[in-house]
Design goal:
By secondary structure, the chain is an alpha+beta fold. The protein has 14 helices and 22 strands. The chain has a 9-stranded mixed β-barrel. It is globular.
Length: 490
């Protein structure tokens, strides 16, 4: 589908690409994949094992941009107008006592995130119908079309609108109209909400090449490999600065304006998802960058990634360069040896022997852990503990990841907020290291349909250890957040 070329053929030295990838790693980005294109040709493609080109990665809020394109297709079919009020499409969910400002809210205002307000957090709501949650509010105090405020639930309502008007799921509609003609998204799938509507603000799962193809379609304003597939005018507006999203003038990486569920970036536009799922398109350079990662909890990561991208790649793209076989070989070797980030530090400590395999009894704590131990054996170890749901073990590697399944059962699977089967466990990657003589850190990375991370930090003193668990994940790992004190069992 995509031709591969050297960076030199794309107008950038291979060493610059290698330096970019290495700088992102060195500065703390947890990358899973990076793909860069000039025109329709890939000049860099890297995966951090166990991720590969066939892995269907959760795109989180990049999904919103798919919803936008589906809305544009419906407009092109004459099935809606962007200036339609949203509430009449959902009379049952909206009810009879809609706040006036919400009653006047239009599809266009929802696309631009200038809605009348944001609804209740659906993960903790007693109501499972997200569209009903959105409309059944009494706290609306401003008219739509005024302030930009990121409204993820509003995107979900737009997804419901797509499915109601098309009679198909979001993905099936996009496949029929676009992806089947493009030959992409063949293995893609989406997660659902409890009412059966696609989880349209967060849950597209597809390959890195899939989303690169989507970026190419949008950057070419509806034309893909010579096929005109959708309305150019809609896409030009959707990717433009329709509203201001930078009231304080700080100019974050994606605070250059906002279109229709698409962000403006410096010299281009972007699809943006939680954890740094990013697709950046710069039409003037015919350049596309996309990456998957899990930088949740790492606030500076996005700014670092974008700064490195522009300083090392974008600002230096030019005409094709003479080939440099040795530099390209170094880049290919570097790319082929990337593995998922692991904790670094020391592999052993003077107190390892004292605590190895010993049980610590825990004082009362938020996690409900009653006892725990660390066992070390060569290059690996095991964190064992007992909590409210029983005895658990988390194997880990020292300076490297051990891949397995996180031992807490029943987290959501195909349907958001709905518990999974008792034998359903998320895939994980776990590494550990001594950060100094008395402090040991475990990093648990969830790498499944859902992404998240958990740090377990042990700080020892005499016969005591303080353990701090810090989780960064959307609506799971909630049982693993807080501090506890343990005492060596005699």
């Amino acid at each position: 589908m995509f031709e591969k070329i050297t960076p030199e053929a794309a107008g950038i030295p291979s060493d610059a690409v290698r330096d970019f990838l290495a700088a992102c790693e060195r500065r703390g980005n947890t990358l899973h994949s990076v793909l860069m294109m000039r025109g329709d040709r890939i000049f860099s493609e890297t995966y951090w094992a166990p991720f590969d080109k066939d892995f269907r990665h959760r795109m989180y809020s990049e999904t919103k941009s798919f919803v936008s394109i589906a809305i544009g297709l419906l407009e092109e079919e004459g099935k809606l107008s962007l200036d339609d009020k949203i509430a009449p499409y959902f009379p049952e969910e909206a009810g009879d006592s809609l706040p006036p400002f919400l009653a006047e809210q239009t599809v266009r205002e929802m696309l631009t995130m200038t809605t009348a307000g944001i609804s209740e957090y659906w993960f903790t709501s007693a109501e499972h119908d997200r569209t009903k949650i959105y409309f059944r509010r009494t706290d609306i105090t401003r008219p739509a079309g005024t302030l930009f405020e990121y409204d993820s639930p509003g995107s979900q309502v737009l997804c419901h609108l797509v499915e109601k008007l098309s009679g198909k799921s979001l993905l099936d509609y996009l496949k029929e109209k676009l992806f089947d003609h493009m030959g992409t998204f063949r293995t893609a799938y989406t997660l659902k909400t409890p009412t059966g509507v696609t989880w349209g603000d967060s849950a597209m799962l597809c390959t890195t090449r899939d989303i690169a193809s989507f970026g190419r379609l949008v950057m070419n304003y509806g034309t893909y490999e010579g096929q005109h597939l959708m309305n150019e005018a809609y896409l030009r507006t959707a990717t433009s600065r329709v509203v201001d999203n930078d009231p304080d003038g700080t100019r974050g990486p994606f605070e250059y304006g906002y279109g229709y569920q698409i962000w403006r970036a410096e010299r281009g536009f972007a699809f943006v998802g939680m954890g740094n799922q990013l697709t950046v398109c710069i039409p003037e350079l015919d350049f596309l960058f996309t990456c998957t990662s899990d930088d949740q909890g790492n606030a500076p990561a996005r700014s670092i990634l974008m700064a490195e991208l522009f300083e090392r790649i974008v600002d230096h793209l030019g005409a094709p360069l003479p080939e440099n076989g040795e530099a390209y070989r170094r880049l290919e070797e570097f790319s082929a040896t990337r593995t998922l980030r692991a904790v670094t530090g020391e592999k052993t400590s003077p107190i390892t022997e004292k605590i190895n395999g010993k049980t610590f009894l825990a004082e009362e704590n938020p996690m409900g852990i009653t006892e725990f131990s660390l066992r070390f054996s060569g290059e690996t170890g095991v964190f064992s503990y007992t909590n409210r749901t029983g005895k658990k073990e988390i194997p880990f590697g020292l300076f490297h990841n051990v891949f397995g399944h996180f031992p807490e059962p029943g987290y959501s699977d195909e349907v958001g907020t709905v518990p999974g089967a008792p034998d359903h466990f998320y895939r994980d990657a776990v590494s550990g290291a001594w950060r100094d003589e008395k402090r040991f850190a475990l990093l648990v990375q969830i790498i499944d349909k859902y992404f998240g991370n958990l740090t377990v930090y042990f700080a020892f003193k005499d016969d005591f250890v303080t353990v701090r668990m810090t989780k960064t994940a959307e609506a799971f790992l909630n049982e693993y957040h807080g501090d506890l004190v343990g005492r060596l069992k005699k």
